[in-house]
Prior knowledge:
By secondary structure, the chain is an alpha/beta fold. The chain has two domains: 4-22 and 33-431, Glycosidases (TIM Barrel, Alpha-Beta Barrel), CATH 3.20.20.80; 441-558, Chondroitinase Ac, Chain A, domain 3, CATH 2.60.220. The chain has 16 helices and 30 strands. The strands form six sheets. An eight-stranded parallel β-sheet has the order 18-17-13-7-6-5-20-19. Strands 8, 9, 10, 11, 12, 14 and 15 form a seven-stranded antiparallel β-sheet that branches. Strands 21-24-25-30-27-28 form a six-stranded antiparallel β-sheet. A hairpin with a 3-residue loop joins strand 24 and strand 25. Helix 11 (337-347) packs parallel to helix 12 (366-375). The chain is elongated, with a radius of gyration of 25 Å. The chain starts with a helix and ends with a helix.
Amino acid sequence: MRKMMICSMLLVMILLGGCKLNKEVTTVTVTTETPKEELQVVSQIKYTDNGKAYFTVLGKPFLIIGGQVRLDGLQNRGEGAYQPPEMAPKAATWDEIERYFSEAKHFGLNTLQIPIDWRDIEPEKDIYDFSVLDKLLTLANTYDLKVELLWFSTNMCGDSHSFHIPDYIWNDKETYPRMQYLSNKQYIDEHWTWMYGFTGFLVLDDDDLLEREAKVLTNMMNYIYEWNKANGNKFPVISIQVHNEPDGLLRWRVDQGQIKFNEELVSKERIWEMTLNALNNAGLAIKQSKYQVVTRVNLTVTTSINPFPQAPFASPLDVLALEGIDIIGDDPYTESPKIIKNTILSYSIHGNYPHIAENMGNYAATPSLLLAAYAAGGSYNIYDFATPPYFVWFNEYLNSTYQMDQGILRPDFSNKPHSELTRRIIKGINEAFYIIALSDKENFATFNIHKPLPEHNLTQTINTSNVQFTFKTDNGAIGFGITDDEYIYVYATDHVQIKMDNVVLYPVAYIGKFAGDGQFISLETVYPTDAYISIEGGKLYRFRMREKGERLNSTTMDNI
Protein backbone atom coordinates (compact mmCIF):
# COMPACT_ATOMS: atom_id res chain seq x y z
CA MET A 1 0.00 0.00 0.00
CA ARG A 2 2.15 2.43 -1.14
CA LYS A 3 3.97 4.40 0.71
CA MET A 4 5.35 7.72 1.39
CA MET A 5 5.89 8.35 -2.33
CA ILE A 6 2.40 7.35 -3.42
CA CYS A 7 0.77 8.91 -0.40
CA SER A 8 2.70 12.14 -0.86
CA MET A 9 1.84 12.20 -4.54
CA LEU A 10 -1.82 11.56 -3.77
CA LEU A 11 -2.01 14.21 -1.15
CA VAL A 12 -0.15 16.85 -3.07
CA MET A 13 -0.16 18.66 0.23
CA ILE A 14 -0.41 18.69 3.84
CA LEU A 15 -0.08 18.81 7.38
CA LEU A 16 0.82 18.91 10.89
CA GLY A 17 2.47 20.19 14.13
CA GLY A 18 2.19 19.82 17.95
CA CYS A 19 0.04 19.82 21.21
CA LYS A 20 -2.38 17.55 23.15
CA LEU A 21 -6.03 16.92 22.45
CA ASN A 22 -8.16 17.96 25.38
CA LYS A 23 -9.33 14.44 26.06
CA GLU A 24 -8.33 11.43 28.12
CA VAL A 25 -8.21 8.46 25.77
CA THR A 26 -8.43 4.79 26.62
CA THR A 27 -8.51 1.68 24.46
CA VAL A 28 -12.10 0.55 23.98
CA THR A 29 -13.15 -3.06 23.51
CA VAL A 30 -16.71 -4.23 23.16
CA THR A 31 -16.41 -7.97 23.57
CA THR A 32 -16.70 -10.28 26.50
CA GLU A 33 -14.32 -13.20 26.94
CA THR A 34 -15.06 -16.00 24.51
CA PRO A 35 -15.58 -19.47 26.06
CA LYS A 36 -12.60 -21.74 25.36
CA GLU A 37 -14.72 -24.34 23.60
CA GLU A 38 -15.68 -21.71 21.01
CA LEU A 39 -12.11 -20.52 20.38
CA GLN A 40 -10.08 -21.46 17.34
CA VAL A 41 -6.41 -20.51 17.57
CA VAL A 42 -5.44 -20.61 13.91
CA SER A 43 -1.96 -19.10 13.85
CA GLN A 44 0.74 -18.31 16.39
CA ILE A 45 4.40 -17.43 16.62
CA LYS A 46 6.50 -20.20 18.15
CA TYR A 47 10.22 -20.64 18.82
CA THR A 48 12.88 -23.26 18.17
CA ASP A 49 15.16 -24.46 20.97
CA ASN A 50 17.67 -21.91 19.69
CA GLY A 51 15.15 -19.09 20.06
CA LYS A 52 14.29 -18.57 16.39
CA ALA A 53 10.75 -17.29 15.87
CA TYR A 54 8.66 -19.05 13.25
CA PHE A 55 5.10 -18.79 12.02
CA THR A 56 2.66 -21.64 12.63
CA VAL A 57 -0.78 -22.54 11.31
CA LEU A 58 -2.71 -25.01 13.47
CA GLY A 59 0.50 -25.64 15.39
CA LYS A 60 2.64 -26.59 12.36
CA PRO A 61 5.43 -24.50 10.81
CA PHE A 62 4.17 -22.41 7.91
CA LEU A 63 6.48 -20.37 5.71
CA ILE A 64 4.64 -17.39 4.23
CA ILE A 65 5.49 -16.87 0.55
CA GLY A 66 3.26 -13.94 -0.20
CA GLY A 67 2.06 -11.51 -2.81
CA GLN A 68 -0.35 -8.65 -2.47
CA VAL A 69 -3.54 -8.31 -4.49
CA ARG A 70 -5.00 -4.82 -4.23
CA LEU A 71 -8.68 -5.65 -4.07
CA ASP A 72 -9.45 -2.00 -3.31
CA GLY A 73 -7.72 -0.95 -6.53
CA LEU A 74 -9.68 -3.56 -8.46
CA GLN A 75 -13.05 -2.49 -7.08
CA ASN A 76 -13.04 1.07 -5.74
CA ARG A 77 -13.84 3.95 -8.09
CA GLY A 78 -14.95 7.56 -7.80
CA GLU A 79 -18.13 7.88 -5.77
CA GLY A 80 -20.61 10.62 -5.10
CA ALA A 81 -19.82 13.87 -6.89
CA TYR A 82 -16.63 12.52 -8.46
CA GLN A 83 -16.62 9.85 -11.12
CA PRO A 84 -13.55 8.64 -13.02
CA PRO A 85 -13.36 9.62 -16.69
CA GLU A 86 -14.91 7.28 -19.21
CA MET A 87 -11.52 5.96 -20.36
CA ALA A 88 -10.60 4.74 -16.86
CA PRO A 89 -10.56 0.92 -16.44
CA LYS A 90 -13.81 -0.42 -15.06
CA ALA A 91 -14.14 -2.14 -11.72
CA ALA A 92 -13.05 -5.77 -11.94
CA THR A 93 -15.68 -8.49 -11.99
CA TRP A 94 -15.30 -11.42 -9.62
CA ASP A 95 -14.40 -13.63 -12.57
CA GLU A 96 -11.53 -11.24 -13.27
CA ILE A 97 -10.54 -11.14 -9.60
CA GLU A 98 -10.50 -14.96 -9.52
CA ARG A 99 -7.68 -14.93 -12.04
CA TYR A 100 -5.39 -13.30 -9.48
CA PHE A 101 -5.88 -16.36 -7.28
CA SER A 102 -5.32 -18.88 -10.09
CA GLU A 103 -2.23 -17.04 -11.37
CA ALA A 104 -0.81 -16.70 -7.85
CA LYS A 105 -1.23 -20.44 -7.28
CA HIS A 106 0.49 -21.18 -10.58
CA PHE A 107 3.31 -18.77 -9.68
CA GLY A 108 3.98 -20.68 -6.47
CA LEU A 109 2.71 -18.26 -3.83
CA ASN A 110 1.01 -19.81 -0.82
CA THR A 111 -0.44 -16.65 0.71
CA LEU A 112 -2.16 -13.56 -0.66
CA GLN A 113 -2.26 -10.28 1.20
CA ILE A 114 -5.67 -8.81 0.39
CA PRO A 115 -7.18 -5.54 1.63
CA ILE A 116 -10.60 -5.63 3.20
CA ASP A 117 -12.20 -2.22 3.69
CA TRP A 118 -14.19 -1.36 6.78
CA ARG A 119 -16.96 -0.07 4.51
CA ASP A 120 -17.05 -3.49 2.77
CA ILE A 121 -18.03 -5.14 6.04
CA GLU A 122 -20.22 -2.44 7.61
CA PRO A 123 -21.66 -0.25 4.83
CA GLU A 124 -24.18 1.22 7.29
CA LYS A 125 -24.08 1.48 11.05
CA ASP A 126 -24.68 -1.97 12.57
CA ILE A 127 -25.62 -3.35 9.13
CA TYR A 128 -23.11 -6.01 8.12
CA ASP A 129 -22.40 -7.29 4.63
CA PHE A 130 -20.01 -10.23 4.37
CA SER A 131 -20.47 -10.85 0.63
CA VAL A 132 -16.99 -9.58 -0.32
CA LEU A 133 -15.44 -11.64 2.46
CA ASP A 134 -17.45 -14.71 1.35
CA LYS A 135 -16.03 -14.44 -2.16
CA LEU A 136 -12.45 -14.00 -0.94
CA LEU A 137 -12.63 -16.97 1.40
CA THR A 138 -14.24 -19.15 -1.25
CA LEU A 139 -11.51 -18.31 -3.76
CA ALA A 140 -8.82 -18.99 -1.17
CA ASN A 141 -10.26 -22.43 -0.45
CA THR A 142 -10.77 -23.16 -4.15
CA TYR A 143 -7.10 -22.51 -4.95
CA ASP A 144 -5.70 -23.84 -1.68
CA LEU A 145 -4.23 -20.47 -0.73
CA LYS A 146 -3.99 -18.73 2.61
CA VAL A 147 -5.00 -15.11 3.10
CA GLU A 148 -3.62 -12.30 5.22
CA LEU A 149 -6.40 -9.74 5.45
CA LEU A 150 -5.14 -6.17 5.34
CA TRP A 151 -7.52 -4.20 7.53
CA PHE A 152 -7.91 -0.86 5.73
CA SER A 153 -9.75 1.46 8.05
CA THR A 154 -8.76 4.64 9.85
CA ASN A 155 -5.02 4.84 9.12
CA MET A 156 -3.52 4.05 5.74
CA CYS A 157 -0.08 5.57 5.12
CA GLY A 158 -0.97 8.02 7.88
CA ASP A 159 -4.25 9.13 6.29
CA SER A 160 -7.94 8.36 6.65
CA HIS A 161 -9.76 7.64 3.38
CA SER A 162 -13.44 7.69 2.49
CA PHE A 163 -13.02 4.66 0.20
CA HIS A 164 -12.09 2.55 3.23
CA ILE A 165 -14.36 3.95 5.93
CA PRO A 166 -18.19 3.76 6.12
CA ASP A 167 -20.10 6.90 5.20
CA TYR A 168 -21.73 7.04 8.62
CA ILE A 169 -18.25 7.51 10.11
CA TRP A 170 -16.82 9.77 7.42
CA ASN A 171 -19.78 12.15 7.20
CA ASP A 172 -20.43 12.52 10.96
CA LYS A 173 -17.67 14.89 12.01
CA GLU A 174 -19.32 15.64 15.33
CA THR A 175 -19.39 12.05 16.58
CA TYR A 176 -16.16 11.01 14.84
CA PRO A 177 -14.07 14.19 14.80
CA ARG A 178 -11.43 14.99 12.25
CA MET A 179 -8.29 17.03 12.56
CA GLN A 180 -7.60 19.88 10.16
CA TYR A 181 -4.43 20.28 8.14
CA LEU A 182 -2.78 23.20 6.43
CA SER A 183 -3.06 23.19 2.63
CA ASN A 184 -2.59 26.16 0.34
CA LYS A 185 -2.41 28.51 3.34
CA GLN A 186 -5.74 27.41 4.78
CA TYR A 187 -6.90 24.67 7.13
CA ILE A 188 -9.13 21.99 5.60
CA ASP A 189 -10.33 18.59 6.78
CA GLU A 190 -10.47 16.65 3.50
CA HIS A 191 -9.49 16.66 -0.15
CA TRP A 192 -10.21 14.37 -3.09
CA THR A 193 -7.87 11.71 -4.50
CA TRP A 194 -8.68 9.34 -7.37
CA MET A 195 -7.26 6.26 -5.66
CA TYR A 196 -8.66 6.58 -2.15
CA GLY A 197 -11.58 9.00 -2.32
CA PHE A 198 -11.65 11.86 0.16
CA THR A 199 -8.57 12.03 2.37
CA GLY A 200 -8.31 13.56 5.83
CA PHE A 201 -7.28 12.76 9.41
CA LEU A 202 -9.65 11.22 11.88
CA VAL A 203 -8.87 11.53 15.59
CA LEU A 204 -7.73 7.92 15.63
CA ASP A 205 -8.38 7.15 19.28
CA ASP A 206 -11.63 8.97 19.76
CA ASP A 207 -13.66 6.77 22.10
CA ASP A 208 -16.64 6.45 19.77
CA LEU A 209 -14.41 5.57 16.82
CA LEU A 210 -12.50 2.96 18.82
CA GLU A 211 -15.72 1.35 19.94
CA ARG A 212 -17.07 1.11 16.40
CA GLU A 213 -13.85 -0.35 14.98
CA ALA A 214 -13.57 -2.94 17.74
CA LYS A 215 -17.16 -3.97 17.17
CA VAL A 216 -16.84 -4.42 13.41
CA LEU A 217 -13.58 -6.36 13.75
CA THR A 218 -15.04 -8.70 16.37
CA ASN A 219 -18.07 -9.34 14.18
CA MET A 220 -15.89 -9.94 11.12
CA MET A 221 -13.62 -12.43 12.90
CA ASN A 222 -16.55 -14.26 14.46
CA TYR A 223 -18.13 -14.49 11.02
CA ILE A 224 -14.91 -16.02 9.65
CA TYR A 225 -15.06 -18.55 12.49
CA GLU A 226 -18.59 -19.64 11.52
CA TRP A 227 -17.84 -19.54 7.79
CA ASN A 228 -14.78 -21.73 8.25
CA LYS A 229 -16.76 -24.34 10.21
CA ALA A 230 -19.38 -24.44 7.47
CA ASN A 231 -16.88 -24.68 4.62
CA GLY A 232 -14.55 -27.54 5.37
CA ASN A 233 -12.34 -26.16 8.16
CA LYS A 234 -9.55 -25.17 5.76
CA PHE A 235 -8.72 -22.07 7.82
CA PRO A 236 -8.09 -19.71 4.90
CA VAL A 237 -7.34 -16.60 6.99
CA ILE A 238 -4.03 -16.89 8.83
CA SER A 239 -3.29 -13.32 9.94
CA ILE A 240 -4.55 -9.75 9.97
CA GLN A 241 -2.50 -6.69 9.15
CA VAL A 242 -3.77 -3.90 11.39
CA HIS A 243 -3.94 -0.61 9.45
CA ASN A 244 -1.24 0.14 6.90
CA GLU A 245 2.08 1.90 7.43
CA PRO A 246 0.47 3.70 10.38
CA ASP A 247 3.73 5.40 11.36
CA GLY A 248 3.34 7.53 8.23
CA LEU A 249 1.17 9.97 10.17
CA LEU A 250 3.94 10.65 12.68
CA ARG A 251 6.89 10.42 10.32
CA TRP A 252 5.68 12.05 7.11
CA ARG A 253 2.41 13.91 7.48
CA VAL A 254 3.39 16.00 10.49
CA ASP A 255 6.38 17.39 8.63
CA GLN A 256 4.41 18.14 5.47
CA GLY A 257 2.29 20.83 7.12
CA GLN A 258 0.45 21.44 10.35
CA ILE A 259 -2.39 19.57 12.03
CA LYS A 260 -4.85 21.24 14.36
CA PHE A 261 -7.67 20.05 16.53
CA ASN A 262 -10.00 22.54 18.22
CA GLU A 263 -7.69 25.32 17.04
CA GLU A 264 -4.66 23.84 18.80
CA LEU A 265 -1.65 22.34 17.09
CA VAL A 266 -1.28 18.60 17.65
CA SER A 267 2.14 17.46 18.83
CA LYS A 268 4.08 14.54 17.43
CA GLU A 269 3.87 12.89 20.83
CA ARG A 270 0.07 13.07 20.70
CA ILE A 271 0.01 11.84 17.11
CA TRP A 272 2.03 8.76 18.11
CA GLU A 273 -0.12 8.17 21.18
CA MET A 274 -3.33 8.08 19.14
CA THR A 275 -1.68 5.86 16.52
CA LEU A 276 -0.65 3.30 19.12
CA ASN A 277 -4.02 3.42 20.89
CA ALA A 278 -5.85 2.72 17.62
CA LEU A 279 -3.53 -0.16 16.69
CA ASN A 280 -3.84 -1.78 20.10
CA ASN A 281 -7.61 -1.41 20.15
CA ALA A 282 -8.01 -3.12 16.77
CA GLY A 283 -5.50 -5.86 17.62
CA LEU A 284 -7.23 -6.68 20.90
CA ALA A 285 -10.59 -6.93 19.16
CA ILE A 286 -9.13 -9.55 16.80
CA LYS A 287 -7.54 -11.42 19.70
CA GLN A 288 -10.76 -11.54 21.68
CA SER A 289 -12.75 -13.05 18.82
CA LYS A 290 -13.52 -16.71 18.20
CA TYR A 291 -11.12 -16.97 15.25
CA GLN A 292 -7.71 -15.96 16.59
CA VAL A 293 -4.79 -15.26 14.29
CA VAL A 294 -1.46 -13.47 14.36
CA THR A 295 -1.83 -9.70 14.24
CA ARG A 296 0.87 -7.75 12.48
CA VAL A 297 1.77 -4.16 11.62
CA ASN A 298 3.80 -3.06 8.62
CA LEU A 299 6.01 -0.02 9.06
CA THR A 300 7.21 2.27 6.33
CA VAL A 301 10.89 2.30 5.33
CA THR A 302 12.58 1.86 8.67
CA THR A 303 15.01 -1.01 7.85
CA SER A 304 15.86 -1.20 11.56
CA ILE A 305 14.18 -1.09 14.95
CA ASN A 306 16.07 2.09 15.86
CA PRO A 307 14.10 5.24 16.78
CA PHE A 308 12.49 7.05 13.86
CA PRO A 309 14.71 9.87 12.53
CA GLN A 310 11.66 12.14 12.27
CA ALA A 311 10.65 11.46 15.90
CA PRO A 312 13.50 10.08 18.06
CA PHE A 313 11.16 9.49 21.01
CA ALA A 314 9.33 6.78 19.02
CA SER A 315 10.42 3.50 17.43
CA PRO A 316 9.04 0.28 15.90
CA LEU A 317 9.45 -1.34 19.31
CA ASP A 318 6.59 0.81 20.63
CA VAL A 319 4.29 -1.05 18.24
CA LEU A 320 5.75 -4.46 19.08
CA ALA A 321 5.14 -3.76 22.78
CA LEU A 322 1.37 -3.41 22.25
CA GLU A 323 -0.70 -6.20 23.77
CA GLY A 324 -2.87 -6.40 20.67
CA ILE A 325 -0.01 -6.72 18.15
CA ASP A 326 2.04 -9.90 17.76
CA ILE A 327 4.68 -8.99 15.18
CA ILE A 328 6.03 -6.06 13.20
CA GLY A 329 7.53 -5.97 9.72
CA ASP A 330 9.11 -3.48 7.39
CA ASP A 331 8.25 -2.02 3.97
CA PRO A 332 11.83 -1.20 2.90
CA TYR A 333 11.38 -0.66 -0.86
CA THR A 334 14.95 -1.53 -1.72
CA GLU A 335 16.77 -3.50 -4.42
CA SER A 336 19.63 -4.39 -2.09
CA PRO A 337 19.81 -7.98 -0.76
CA LYS A 338 22.17 -6.70 1.94
CA ILE A 339 19.58 -4.20 3.21
CA ILE A 340 16.89 -6.90 3.18
CA LYS A 341 19.14 -9.21 5.19
CA ASN A 342 20.06 -6.51 7.71
CA THR A 343 16.42 -5.46 8.07
CA ILE A 344 15.39 -9.02 8.95
CA LEU A 345 18.27 -9.30 11.41
CA SER A 346 17.40 -5.98 13.04
CA TYR A 347 13.76 -7.02 13.46
CA SER A 348 14.76 -10.40 14.96
CA ILE A 349 14.54 -9.19 18.55
CA HIS A 350 12.21 -9.43 21.53
CA GLY A 351 10.59 -12.57 20.12
CA ASN A 352 9.48 -10.80 16.94
CA TYR A 353 8.92 -12.83 13.79
CA PRO A 354 10.71 -10.62 11.25
CA HIS A 355 9.26 -10.19 7.79
CA ILE A 356 9.35 -7.97 4.78
CA ALA A 357 5.73 -6.85 4.74
CA GLU A 358 5.97 -5.45 1.22
CA ASN A 359 8.72 -4.76 -1.29
CA MET A 360 8.26 -3.81 -4.91
CA GLY A 361 7.72 -6.78 -7.22
CA ASN A 362 9.02 -4.77 -10.16
CA TYR A 363 12.57 -4.96 -8.81
CA ALA A 364 14.76 -7.08 -11.08
CA ALA A 365 16.53 -8.22 -7.91
CA THR A 366 13.39 -9.85 -6.50
CA PRO A 367 14.75 -13.45 -6.64
CA SER A 368 17.81 -12.44 -4.59
CA LEU A 369 15.72 -10.30 -2.23
CA LEU A 370 13.39 -13.19 -1.48
CA LEU A 371 16.21 -15.59 -0.75
CA ALA A 372 18.04 -13.04 1.41
CA ALA A 373 14.96 -12.61 3.63
CA TYR A 374 14.35 -16.32 4.17
CA ALA A 375 18.03 -17.06 4.77
CA ALA A 376 18.18 -14.37 7.46
CA GLY A 377 15.26 -15.98 9.29
CA GLY A 378 12.18 -14.11 8.08
CA SER A 379 9.63 -14.14 5.27
CA TYR A 380 8.81 -11.95 2.28
CA ASN A 381 5.69 -10.47 0.68
CA ILE A 382 5.84 -9.15 -2.87
CA TYR A 383 4.10 -5.83 -3.50
CA ASP A 384 2.32 -6.45 -5.62
CA PHE A 385 1.42 -9.55 -7.58
CA ALA A 386 -0.08 -7.74 -10.58
CA THR A 387 -0.91 -4.05 -10.27
CA PRO A 388 -4.58 -3.14 -10.83
CA PRO A 389 -5.07 -1.46 -14.23
CA TYR A 390 -6.95 1.37 -12.50
CA PHE A 391 -3.87 2.29 -10.45
CA VAL A 392 -1.71 2.33 -13.57
CA TRP A 393 -4.26 4.48 -15.38
CA PHE A 394 -4.50 6.86 -12.43
CA ASN A 395 -0.75 7.38 -12.47
CA GLU A 396 -0.74 8.15 -16.20
CA TYR A 397 -3.78 10.40 -15.81
CA LEU A 398 -1.79 12.59 -13.41
CA ASN A 399 1.26 12.51 -15.72
CA SER A 400 3.29 11.14 -12.83
CA THR A 401 6.78 9.75 -13.38
CA TYR A 402 6.39 7.43 -10.38
CA GLN A 403 6.69 3.69 -11.11
CA MET A 404 3.14 2.57 -10.36
CA ASP A 405 3.34 -0.84 -12.05
CA GLN A 406 4.96 -2.61 -9.11
CA GLY A 407 3.84 -6.17 -9.81
CA ILE A 408 6.00 -9.23 -10.20
CA LEU A 409 3.75 -9.78 -13.24
CA ARG A 410 2.39 -7.13 -15.59
CA PRO A 411 -1.25 -6.04 -15.12
CA ASP A 412 -2.24 -8.52 -17.86
CA PHE A 413 -0.35 -11.32 -15.99
CA SER A 414 2.39 -11.60 -18.59
CA ASN A 415 5.95 -12.11 -17.39
CA LYS A 416 8.45 -9.39 -16.68
CA PRO A 417 12.14 -10.19 -17.37
CA HIS A 418 12.74 -11.41 -13.80
CA SER A 419 9.42 -13.22 -13.31
CA GLU A 420 10.63 -16.67 -14.34
CA LEU A 421 13.72 -16.64 -12.10
CA THR A 422 11.49 -15.49 -9.23
CA ARG A 423 9.13 -18.37 -9.92
CA ARG A 424 12.03 -20.84 -9.88
CA ILE A 425 13.44 -19.69 -6.55
CA ILE A 426 9.95 -19.70 -5.05
CA LYS A 427 9.61 -23.34 -6.13
CA GLY A 428 12.71 -24.23 -4.11
CA ILE A 429 11.56 -22.23 -1.09
CA ASN A 430 8.22 -24.05 -1.22
CA GLU A 431 9.80 -27.49 -1.45
CA ALA A 432 12.22 -26.79 1.41
CA PHE A 433 9.73 -24.80 3.49
CA TYR A 434 9.97 -26.92 6.62
CA ILE A 435 13.73 -26.84 7.02
CA ILE A 436 13.79 -23.15 6.03
CA ALA A 437 11.21 -22.28 8.69
CA LEU A 438 13.19 -23.96 11.46
CA SER A 439 16.82 -23.54 10.38
CA ASP A 440 19.18 -21.04 11.98
CA LYS A 441 20.79 -18.46 9.73
CA GLU A 442 24.22 -19.93 10.58
CA ASN A 443 23.15 -23.11 8.77
CA PHE A 444 21.75 -21.38 5.67
CA ALA A 445 24.10 -20.71 2.73
CA THR A 446 22.91 -18.64 -0.23
CA PHE A 447 24.57 -18.68 -3.62
CA ASN A 448 24.97 -15.84 -6.09
CA ILE A 449 22.83 -13.25 -4.29
CA HIS A 450 25.64 -11.07 -2.90
CA LYS A 451 24.76 -8.58 -5.65
CA PRO A 452 21.24 -7.50 -6.67
CA LEU A 453 21.53 -9.33 -10.00
CA PRO A 454 23.09 -12.79 -10.25
CA GLU A 455 26.48 -13.14 -11.88
CA HIS A 456 26.44 -15.28 -14.99
CA ASN A 457 29.78 -17.00 -14.34
CA LEU A 458 30.69 -17.47 -10.71
CA THR A 459 32.57 -19.76 -8.34
CA GLN A 460 31.65 -18.96 -4.74
CA THR A 461 32.57 -20.55 -1.41
CA ILE A 462 30.25 -20.18 1.58
CA ASN A 463 30.46 -21.71 5.05
CA THR A 464 27.70 -22.82 7.35
CA SER A 465 28.36 -23.96 10.90
CA ASN A 466 29.43 -27.42 9.75
CA VAL A 467 29.80 -27.47 5.94
CA GLN A 468 31.84 -25.54 3.40
CA PHE A 469 30.00 -25.18 0.07
CA THR A 470 31.71 -24.35 -3.21
CA PHE A 471 29.23 -23.40 -5.88
CA LYS A 472 29.88 -23.07 -9.63
CA THR A 473 27.55 -21.64 -12.25
CA ASP A 474 27.90 -20.55 -15.86
CA ASN A 475 24.22 -19.70 -16.37
CA GLY A 476 23.35 -17.15 -13.67
CA ALA A 477 21.70 -19.67 -11.34
CA ILE A 478 21.04 -18.79 -7.71
CA GLY A 479 20.38 -21.25 -4.92
CA PHE A 480 20.89 -22.35 -1.36
CA GLY A 481 22.31 -25.03 0.89
CA ILE A 482 20.86 -25.74 4.33
CA THR A 483 22.38 -28.02 6.94
CA ASP A 484 21.22 -29.59 10.16
CA ASP A 485 22.69 -32.33 12.36
CA GLU A 486 22.01 -35.08 9.82
CA TYR A 487 21.20 -33.72 6.39
CA ILE A 488 22.19 -31.20 3.75
CA TYR A 489 19.54 -29.72 1.46
CA VAL A 490 20.57 -28.12 -1.82
CA TYR A 491 18.50 -26.28 -4.43
CA ALA A 492 19.41 -24.18 -7.47
CA THR A 493 17.32 -22.44 -10.10
CA ASP A 494 19.38 -23.92 -12.93
CA HIS A 495 22.09 -26.53 -13.41
CA VAL A 496 25.08 -25.94 -11.10
CA GLN A 497 27.97 -27.86 -9.59
CA ILE A 498 28.47 -28.01 -5.83
CA LYS A 499 31.25 -29.39 -3.67
CA MET A 500 30.71 -29.92 0.06
CA ASP A 501 33.78 -30.00 2.31
CA ASN A 502 34.29 -30.69 6.05
CA VAL A 503 31.73 -33.46 5.75
CA VAL A 504 31.47 -37.11 4.64
CA LEU A 505 28.37 -38.01 2.64
CA TYR A 506 26.57 -41.27 2.06
CA PRO A 507 26.94 -42.38 -1.59
CA VAL A 508 23.25 -41.91 -2.29
CA ALA A 509 21.02 -38.82 -2.23
CA TYR A 510 17.36 -38.14 -2.78
CA ILE A 511 15.39 -35.54 -4.73
CA GLY A 512 12.06 -34.57 -3.24
CA LYS A 513 10.19 -32.06 -1.13
CA PHE A 514 8.71 -31.52 2.31
CA ALA A 515 5.08 -32.37 2.97
CA GLY A 516 2.87 -30.20 5.15
CA ASP A 517 3.57 -32.36 8.19
CA GLY A 518 7.34 -31.90 7.82
CA GLN A 519 8.05 -35.32 6.30
CA PHE A 520 10.50 -35.37 3.40
CA ILE A 521 8.98 -37.09 0.38
CA SER A 522 11.57 -38.74 -1.87
CA LEU A 523 10.78 -38.69 -5.57
CA GLU A 524 14.11 -39.63 -7.19
CA THR A 525 17.37 -41.31 -6.17
CA VAL A 526 20.83 -40.17 -7.31
CA TYR A 527 24.31 -41.57 -6.71
CA PRO A 528 26.91 -38.78 -6.63
CA THR A 529 30.48 -39.91 -7.23
CA ASP A 530 32.56 -36.84 -8.11
CA ALA A 531 33.89 -34.19 -5.75
CA TYR A 532 31.74 -31.64 -7.57
CA ILE A 533 28.17 -32.89 -7.61
CA SER A 534 26.01 -31.97 -10.57
CA ILE A 535 22.76 -30.39 -9.34
CA GLU A 536 19.83 -30.25 -11.73
CA GLY A 537 17.93 -26.96 -11.67
CA GLY A 538 14.52 -26.80 -10.02
CA LYS A 539 14.98 -29.84 -7.77
CA LEU A 540 15.55 -30.09 -4.01
CA TYR A 541 18.34 -32.55 -3.08
CA ARG A 542 18.82 -34.15 0.31
CA PHE A 543 22.20 -35.60 1.27
CA ARG A 544 22.83 -37.45 4.51
CA MET A 545 26.05 -36.82 6.43
CA ARG A 546 27.92 -39.63 8.16
CA GLU A 547 30.65 -39.86 10.71
CA LYS A 548 34.17 -40.20 9.37
CA GLY A 549 35.12 -43.86 9.40
CA GLU A 550 31.50 -44.99 9.75
CA ARG A 551 31.11 -48.41 8.12
CA LEU A 552 28.32 -48.79 5.59
CA ASN A 553 25.99 -51.77 5.78
CA SER A 554 22.50 -52.62 4.63
CA THR A 555 20.92 -51.22 7.80
CA THR A 556 22.60 -47.83 7.60
CA MET A 557 21.90 -47.61 3.86
CA ASP A 558 18.22 -48.36 4.43
CA ASN A 559 18.00 -45.44 6.89
CA ILE A 560 19.47 -42.74 4.66
